[in-house]
Amino acid sequence: MRRSFLLAILAASAFATAEAEAHAFLDHAIPAVGSSVHTAPTEISAWFTQELEPAFSTIEVTDASGMRVDKADSHVDPSDATELHVSLKPLAAGDYRVHWRVLSVDTHRTDGTFPFTVAP
What we know:
By secondary structure, the protein is of the alpha+beta class. The chain has one helix at residues 2-20, and strands spanning 26-30, 36-37, 43-48, 58-63, 75-77, 80-87, 94-103, 109-118. The protein has one domain (24-118): Immunoglobulin-like.
């Protein structure tokens, strides 16, 4: 009985790990999450832990007042399905927030935000 209980716990743990890995989470971005940059970027690039479904994955950027400062051209990179890009309008010094919402190819949706600052 004790062995069966231990096997059940191991099986449940393996299932939980597989389930957690089935979502596309933000791995890293340029500019980096929470960074302060001295040169305003012309694009945001974000990499995720799984391949993305291009038709259902977006990224937007807003300034401190909530106004969009991206060019509304977010797209998954054709050569790397884990990479999402959006072009930016010219940015002044200030605080910005990146908002992403993605669907991984295994149909799990995730979303999130992160800040970055353009230093004066």
